[in-house]
Protein 1
Amino acid sequence: MLDTILDISKRRGIIYPSFELYGGVAGFYDYGPVGSRIKKNIEDALRRHYVIGEDCLEVECPTLSPEDVWVASGHVTSFTDVMAECEKCGEPYKIEQLFIDAGEQAYGAKISDLKDIVEEKGIVCPKCKGSLGKLYDYNMMFQTFIGPGKYKTTAYLRPETAQTTYIAFRRLWEVARKKLPFGVLQIGHSFRNEISPRQGLVRLREFNQAEIQFFMDPEDKTAPKFSEVERIKIQITDKKDREHDLTLKEAHKKGVIKDKVIAYHSGRAVQFFKKIGLNPGKLRLRQHHDDERSFYSSDTWDVEFESESYGTIELVGIADRTDYDLSAHSKISGEDLSVNIEGRKFIPHVIEVAYGIDRPFYCMLESCLKVEDKRTYFTFPRQVAPYICSVFPLVSKDGLLDKAREIQLKLKSQGLFVLFDSSGSIGRRYARADEIGVPYCVTIDYDSLKDETVTIRERDSKNQVRVSFDELSLKLSSPFSSL
Ligand code: GAP
C-alpha cells in the first residue's frame, strides 16, 4: 500500500521529499500542486469545525520567537529526548525508539536507569551491532539568532504553535469580551529537530499543526454540547493499559474518561477525522501513562490511527494543560495574566486540542486508496478533494474544445477548482482524474452543442447522468445521490 501511495504521490504531485535536487534531507516533504490543494481543504474543514462549530477565534503568529518564550514554557530545559550514538558507526538513536523496538518501556525513566537497561538487555546499534555511547538529553528545538551585532538575540523556531497563542492572552481576552470559556485556533508550521525521522509525513522536522487552546474557568470545565458526541463508540485504552469498547457517554459515566470536556473534544476530533475521509474503524483513543505525559499536562488523551504502513500513529493530543503555561508566562514576563470574574481572580486553565495536519493527511491517503483490477483511485470526500471536477471535450474538433473551455471558465468563475483534460482517450482521462481523487468528470459531446447538456460521471460508482449547462454547478455541489 505504501509503495502505491508514494508512487502516485510523486508522479501526480501530491507529496514528495524536499530538496531532491540536492540529495534530500530526512524529515522534510513538499506538498505538490495536488497535495497543496488537498492540504488547504483539510485545513479549511478544520477551520469550519472549530471557528464555525465551536465559535473559536483564529490567530496566526510568527514561527520564530525569542528565547524568553521557550524558557518560560519549559521547552529550553525539558523539550528533550534521550539519545546516544553508536560508538562504531556513529549512527544517532532516540533511546525511546530503540526500547520500543526491543519491547521495553522507557517512558519517564531517568538517564541513569535507561543506561542500566541498555546494559542489562544488551541493547546495541541495530545497524552494525556496535555498542551505544554515552546517553544524553538532546533538545529538539532549532536554535537561531535574531538581528546583528549588539542587537543579536537567541531565538528558536517554535516546536508547537501553542506558546505563541498563550503569550497574546491579554489581547485575546479583550477580543473575547472578557468571558470564559473561549477557544483560539492557530494553524501553522512547527519545527522539531527529530533525531532520525524515517517515516514520511509521520515524523517531520518541519510540520503543520492546527492547535486549539480552550481557555476555561477551572471551576467550570464543562462541555454543554456533550450530547452531540456521546453516542460515538470507540476503542479506548486507559493509562493502565486497560482496554474498553464504549461510547463516550459510557466512558465518562464509568470514570474511564474523567473529564467530560476531554471526552467531548475526543468526540469532536473523531467527527473531524470521519469528515475528511479517515476510516473510522481504525481510530482509537488512548490515555497517556502518568510517566509519559508532557511536563505541562495533568491528563492527556490521543486519538490514534492504526496505519497499515506505519503502525499506530498519534493524530491529535487532547491535554489538560491546567494553568501551567499562563502561570509560567506571568512569572517570567512579570505581567499578571490572571482574570477577574465577578470578584474571583484566577489564571484560566487551558484544554488543548493539538492536531497535526500531515499525519491525518497521510492517514486519509491510506483510508481512501482503492486498488481495483482496472483502476486505482482515491475516494476523497468532496470537501477535501483537490478539484471538484475535470472537464473533457469528447474530441478536440468541431467546436467541442471551445465549448468545453467555455464550460470550464463558467465553473471557475463560480469559484470552483476545476481541471481541464483534452489529451488521450476518455478512458485515460477518467483514469487520470480518478488517480488524484477528483469526484466528477464532465464530458462535452456533440449533443452538448445541440441541447446544452453535458454528462457528469461520478468517481466511485462510475454512474453517469445528463444535466443541462445551467444545472451543472448546482449538481456538482450537491450530493450525487440527489442527481
Ligand atoms: N502543543 C502540544 C503538542 O505539540 P504534540 O503531541 O507534541 O503536542 C501535536 O503534537 C500533534 O502534532 C501530534 O498529534 C502530531 O499529529 C503532530 N506532530 C508532532 N510531532 C510531529 C512530527 N515530528 N511530524 C509530524 N507531525 C507531528
Note: The radius of gyration is 26 Å.
Protein 2
Amino acid sequence: MKILVIGGAGYIGSHVVREFLDHGYTVTVLDNLSSGTRRNLFGEAAFVHGDIMHPVRLREVMSEGFDGCVHLAALKAAGESMVSPEQYAEMNIAGTINILNAALSAEMPNMIFSSSAAIFGSPQYLPIDEDHPKNPENFYGFTKLEIEKLMEWYDRLKGLKYASIRYFNAAGYDVQGRINGLEMNPENLLPIVMETASGLRKGMSIFGDDYPTRDGTCIRDYVHVNDLAAAHVSAFEHINEMKQSISVNLGSETGVTVSEMIQRAREMTGMPIPAAAAERRPGDPAELVASSAKAKELLGWEPRHSDLDTLIDSTWQVYCKNFSLT
Ligand code: UFG
C-alpha cells in the first residue's frame, strides 16, 4: 500500500511516517520544511520538497497513485491565528482545498486528517466526546472545523473517505529514540518545561494558578505521539476496509495539571526548572479531557505510552541528545 504523508517532516508527521513504515507501507513525504526538518526524514521514505499552496505540483505528486494520504500540513499556533487569521485561512483552509481537489483528480480514495480538540472550544461537559458541541474559540480551531465540514461534503458528493483525528495535547517523542528533531520556538508546555530543564530558558511561566482545579493550574489530556501515530495507521485501515468516513477524539482520558507536569519533570530530570505563576493566558479553558471511547471501539486503539513518566522521559532523552546533557 502506498501512502502520501503531507507534513511528514514535522513533529507529529515524522512519527506518523515511522509508524506507516513499521507497518510495511510504501511512504512518500511531501513537506515545505517551513517548520519540519530534514532531520525528521527517513531513508526508507521518498521525499518531495513541495507546498500545499502549489496545486499543480500537488496534482503531479498525487497522480503517482496512492491508496491514501495523511494531511498534517498546517499552521497551529492558536494565539497567532487570532492576530493573522488571513494566513491561517490561506494555509489551512485553502491549502486543504488544494489537497482535496488534487485527491479527486488523482482518484485517491482516502484521507487521514489532523484535526484538533480546538474545534470544541470551552467544554460544556467532560470528558469531551465526539458529540460535544463544536464552538471553536480561536481561528485555528475554526479552520480545523471548516476542513472537517469540507471533507464531509467531498465524501457525500464525490465519495472521498476521510478519518478526522482530533488530537488533544500531543506530547512525547518516539520511545525507540528514532526521531530527534526538535521544534523551533515551541509554544507547548512540555517542550517549554524541557527547554527550562536544559538551561535554554532561565525560567518559565505557569499561565494562571487560580483555576478551579486541584492545584489551581490548568488540566490537559496529554497523549503520546507514538499513540497518535498508531491511530493514523488504524484509521487508514478502517476507512479503506469499511469504505466509511469517521471522526474520532484522541486523548489519554487522563487529566494532568501544569504544576504536576513541571514537578514530575523536576523529579525525573533532576533539574530545578524554575517556574513562576503568571497571568492566565487568554482562551485557556480550565480543563480539557477527552473521551476516546469511540477510537477504542472503532479502531481497537489504546494509549500505550501516554503515562506522564513516558511522556517526560521520551522528551527529555531527545533534549539530552540535542544538547549533550547527561
Ligand atoms: N502553559 C503554561 N506555560 C507555558 C506554556 C503552557 O502554563 O509556558 C500551560 C497553558 O496555559 C495550558 C497548558 O500549559 O494550560 C497546555 O498548554 P499548551 O500550549 O501546551 O497546549 P494547549 O492546551 O493550549 O493546546 C494544545 C494544542 C492545540 C490543541 C489543544 C487541544 O497546542 O492545538 O492542545 O487540547 F487544540
Note: The two ends are 41 Å apart (CA to CA).
